[in-house]
Amino acid sequence: MVEKLPEAGKIWYKGEFVEWKKAKVHVLSHGLHYGSGVFEGIRCYATEKGSFIFRLKEHVDRMYRSADLYKMEIPYSKEELKEAIKETVRINGLDACYIRPIAFYGYHHLGVNPAGCPVDCAIAVWRWGTYLGEEALERGIRCTFSPWRRIDPNTLPVTAKATGHYLNSMLAVQDAKERGFDEAIMLDNSGYVAEGPGENIFAVKNAALYTPAVESSILPGITRDSVIELAQDTGYKVVEKPVTKEELLSADELFFTGTAAEVSPIREIDNVTIGEGKRGEVTGVIQRKFFDVVNAKEEKYMRWLESVYE
Ligand SMILES: Cc1ncc(COP(=O)(O)O)c(C=O)c1O
Q1: How far apart are CA 130 and CA 151, in angstroms?
Q2: Would the CB of 199 count as within 6 Å of ligand 1?
Q3: Residue 153, helix vs strand vs coil
């Protein structure tokens, strides 16, 4: 059973802090009917040096890029939104949390064309642990190739993190769970590997990393970007290219990356064991490095951490 959201005290909604239960939208809001919203998923980590938001700038930049792709004008500057995000964490007194900013077309008139609808923004934060479970980070998860193809760049701007896009992810997740798997792996319209419903994917072969390029219908993940840099910094070769199903199945190791999934090993696809069926050596190195970085233990990468309380 999936647990209900752990409620925090206040949500930032249209520029003001409101009680969690009072942050409501009208049922005729454009975003509800047509999926016209853009959002982010961001993590704040509690470390020995204080609370830090991981790559806040890049997340806010992506949110504005997503809005641009849909010609949506967010009525706040990036600086205002970043400050509002930090203030929402502070006002709720959280040290580690998940952060969800969203901008969507609100209530005005109802028709596909959103012209005239306000762009309403909200920021919510809540306590959150590992997405796929602590055990998953160590043992790895069991995946299946989804019968649902990833949305295509000729249909929607797939690099936007837009609310409506997640119907595609939802179908893939539901199908995977119904068939007893932890997570889905989606192919693009040409049959190459794209990504998970909320994660990017990496294969390890002969100690080199392979990941689908942005052209393969993926969301350009911020964790993906971080892992590419950390892997190169550690001396691994990283190749962004079209990846086939076969390359995944014959990989030495596989792992997912994402704000929610962090760095999660994949031990099986459709009951085929990947590598040794547990977290591989390279995945272990990258995972440790990633957790050191988000826990403020790597001086070089402190530039990715934004202090909340100082
Ligand atoms: C479809 C999809 N792909 C990949 C990712 C990973 O992106 P990030 O690392 O920025 O969280 C996410 C999560 O935001 C996602 O929803």
Answers
A1: 27
A2: yes
A3: coil
Co-location of 100 and 184 in the same domain: no
Pocket test for ligand 1, best of 39, 259, 262 (most atoms within 8 A of CB): 259
Query: With contact defined as beta carbons under 8 Å apart, do 248 and 273 qualify?
Result: no
Share of the chain above pLDDT 90, in %: 93
Residue 109 CA to ligand 1 center (angstroms) comes to 32
161 included as an active-site residue: yes
| Ligand 1 neighbour 259 (Cβ under 6 A) | yes
Q: Is the shortest distance between the CB of 88 and ligand 1 below 6 Å?
A: no
pLDDT at residue 128 in the model: 83
* pLDDT (0 to 100) of residue 7: 81
Question: Would you say residue 50 has pLDDT above 80?
Answer: yes
Return all residues near 30 (Cβ < 8 A) that are at least 6 apart: 36, 104, 105, 106, 107, 108, 110, 114, 117
Q: What pLDDT sits at residue 130?
A: 64
| Share above pLDDT 70 across residues of the chain, in percent, rounded to a whole number | 98
Parallel, antiparallel or unpaired: strands 141-145 and 183-187: parallel
User: Same structural domain for residues 214 and 90?
Assistant: no
CB 38 near ligand 1, within 6 Å: no
- What average pLDDT is seen over the chain? 96
76 within some domain: yes
CA 242 – CA 201 distance, rounded (Å): 12
* Residue at 290 is within a domain: yes
For residue 303, tell me if it sits in a domain. Answer: no
Confidence of residue 132 (pLDDT cuts 50, 70, 90): low
Question: Could you list the residue range(s) of the whole structural domain that residue 114 is in?
Answer: 10-126
154 lies in the same domain as 244: yes
Total number of domains constituting the chain: 2
Predicted pLDDT at 3: 80
Substitution candidate for ligand 1 out of 161, 173, 187 with most atoms within 8 A of CB = 161
Verify whether ligand 1 is closer than 6 Å to residue 219 (CB atom).
yes
Residue 217 covered by a domain: yes
